[in-house]
Amino acid sequence: MPYICPICQNPLMQQLSSKSYYCPKNHHFDLAKEGYLNLLPAQHKKSKEPGDSRAMMHARRNFLEAGFYQPMAEALANIINTHQPTAKPMHILDVGCGEGYYCRQIEAFADHPESLDLHGLDIAKNAIFAAAKKQQNARFVVASSKSMPYADQYFDLLLKVYAPANELEISRLIKAGGLLLIVTPGPRHLWQLKEFIYHDVKDHAVDVPLPADFTQIESQRISFKIHPDKDQRMALLQMTPFAWRANAEIQNNIQRSKHLEIETDFILTLAVRS
Ligand SMILES: C[S@@+](CC[C@H](N)C(=O)[O-])C[C@H]1O[C@@H](n2cnc3c(N)ncnc32)[C@H](O)[C@@H]1O
Ligand SMILES: [Zn+2]
């Protein structure tokens, strides 16, 4: 079984007759109608609605579904296609998966979708609800990446796209010989958007720190230009960590700019666990 109890860490088993998961100590968790599990106990919540808000989730979904980041998503899927383990299925976890765009793309571009066991985890319930509703073939949970409710060494590959995660948990969950795939912004990422906000735009640091027991085996830089319309520019802005710096005047300037071309720049780092 993939899951462990978030309260006592014992294995969680699904009762055949019901849609509930139980641990030996009788903590239980119901599968939601949309097929996801909420494994974030109330006592682990630091706020009522942790993680990205519903508005942020919608902005992200609209922007991503318009295909602006598809070349990067395809590159992720290609890496997964070329690193299939001999024992099937390949267990994959997308940590901080948001509304599930990359899980859907990995399935869509998979050479053998039937041999993937796709999981997504996010602390934002609204995002997991939206992810589960759109992809029945994947298993989604509401949980914190600081304490992930999965059995030790369950995963062949863990994906982390702009999401926080705890290094010890990453090491615990990936099998020996398993893979960690991290997406981080490259030096030119969203340069033209930043020019509206900062007087002197600085290159982004590209150093990607890895947990102690991982060795980098591949690094790909993917950059391309996008031309979002007025609303899509606002959605993109909302997805960035610098959105809070954009006051009404800056937002207006971004929207009014004619033929705005924005560079994207992604670093895909693949590492193997010893
Ligand atoms: C920048 S978004 C990236 C989402 C997705 N990977 C993507 O690129 O579309 C970061 C995500 O991490 C989630 N998040 C923030 N803190 C978290 C935590 N402690 N545990 C799990 N997810 C978290 C947020 O809810 C949000 O969905
Ligand atoms: Zn328990």
From TrEMBL:
Keywords: Metal-binding, Methyltransferase, S-adenosyl-L-methionine, Transferase, Zinc. Residues 3-48 form the 23S rRNA (guanine(745)-N(1))-methyltransferase N-terminal domain. Coiled coil: none annotated. S-adenosyl-L-methionine binds at Y69, E99, G100, H189. GO terms for molecular function: metal ion binding; methyltransferase activity. Zn(2+) binds at C5, C8, C23, H27. Gene3D superfamilies: Vaccinia Virus protein VP39. It holds the Pfam family Zn_ribbon_RlmA. The keyword Transferase applies. InterPro entries: 23S_rRNA_MeTrnsfrase_RlmA, Methyltranfer_dom, RlmA_N, rRNA_m1G-MeTrfase_A_prd, SAM-dependent_MTases_sf. The keyword ATP-binding does not apply. One of its GO terms (biological process) is methylation. Residues 89-203 form the Methyltransferase domain. It comes from the Bacteria. PANTHER family: METHYLTRANSFERASE (PTHR43460), METHYLTRANSFERASE TYPE 11 DOMAIN-CONTAINING PROTEIN (PTHR43460:SF1). This is 23S rRNA methyltransferase. It comes from Methyloprofundus sedimenti.
